[in-house]
Here is the input.
Amino acid sequence: MIRPVRERQALGLLLMLGLGLMGPQALAGPLITAGPVNPASFTGNVEVDFPSTKVGVITLVNPRYPTQNPEAFIAQHGLSTGWSIKDIRLMYDDVADRLFVGVNFFGIAGDADSNGNPGTVSPQAAAKGAIDLPSLGGRESITVGLDMTKSGRPTILAGVPGDKRQAGPGLNGFSVSAFANVNAGIANSYGLPLSLHQGTLYFDPSPQHPDFIFSINNFSKLPGYDPDNGFGLIAFAGTPDDTFEEEGVLFSDVAFGRIPEPATVLAWSVALVAAAAWRHRSRRHADRSAS
Ligand SMILES: [Ca+2]
Ligand SMILES: [Ca+2]
Ligand SMILES: [Ca+2]
Here is the structure.
């Protein structure tokens, strides 16, 4: 049975209060922000640019991968290190009102066949029909959706669309857009570009700059923004064309520093279920395409 969000939140709160894990004051604490962030210092490596230990950095670990030897897991399951998301890190610069997002890949973002080059395939992978286009070309996409009202559907999308007719003005077609509810997967659902929020994709992923790092401007002016409510975050990476499974991960309840550990754990158990559902859907889709 799926309970309404308010009821679930109330239950979780009661549970935590009952366990003595938090007091009521924790609900209305200040936002923990990263302070001024200078993107000119970015290296393109999320683990360097968004250290988990830095105050104001939120690290959303993808529950799909084991902490012990995830590379072996990826290899055993025939996945791609260039699409497999290890974690997603957020930093909010409250001075510039800018959200920085680091999508942290195990390998080089967009390197479909994990050969160390995001624009080529090895002869072995090519023999199996794999393709890999440079600069997130073709239908390759890395897309992050923010669900500002926790409605279960993104409010905005940011990233490089799979459908390049939806490309924006940024590097590799990077765009910050309204979500178009067209039933085509988030990679192909970029609607009207939002110039107020258009940020920057800092690097075309490469061995030197392996991850996918971007900003969203005027974060507090996003429709539905409410620091007391938090937001949902969904991410996609992949393409239907390269023979490798696409990545999808959902974090249903993200907030800046306001929520203590136990609530985060509660939220992640919900995310696990959602991520499993996503994979089930994407596998069904793959089956359909193959038949
Ligand atoms: Ca990385
Ligand atoms: Ca590629
Ligand atoms: Ca490659």
About this structure: The helical segments are 5-19, 46-49, 70-76, 123-127, 261-290. Residues 139 and 162 are 4 Å apart (CA to CA).
